Amino acid sequence: MSDAELAVSYAALILADESIEITAEKLQTLIKAAGLVDVEPIWTTLFAKALEGKDVKDLLLNVGSGGGAPAASGGAGGAAAGGDAPAEEKEEEKEEEKEESDEDMGFGLFD
């Protein structure tokens, strides 16, 4: 990540922390106030457009959630969703156990 991208990222985080709307002008103002003059305006425009209408705090809190969150929340909602998920997890566990047992047989690449 370049210094310009890093500066704009930090400026966006500062604005999000203060619950201020993230715009290219506000990002540029923060960057200039920090004494960084070599950041091209294209970076502030790109970041402002990318974060437009998004809650940055929410994005940061859900970074690692991926596809697991909908399945976890669906278990409490209905019987059909709750009944399918545990069965799939059990099947995956069985497959993993089979793979692990193959490794315990003592066969390896250099044996």
UniProtKB/TrEMBL annotation:
InterPro entries: P1/P2_N_sf, Ribosomal_P1/P2. GO terms for biological process: cytoplasmic translation; translational elongation. The keyword Repressor does not apply. Keywords: Ribonucleoprotein, Ribosomal protein. Residues 67-81 have a biased composition (Gly residues). GO terms for molecular function: protein kinase activator activity; ribonucleoprotein complex binding; structural constituent of ribosome. Residues 89-105 have a biased composition (Acidic residues). It comes from the Eukaryota. Residues 67-111 are annotated as: Disordered. GO terms for cellular component: cytosolic large ribosomal subunit. Pfam families: Ribosomal_60s. P1 and P2 exist as dimers at the large ribosomal subunit. Belongs to the eukaryotic ribosomal protein P1/P2 family. Plays an important role in the elongation step of protein synthesis. This is Large ribosomal subunit protein P1.
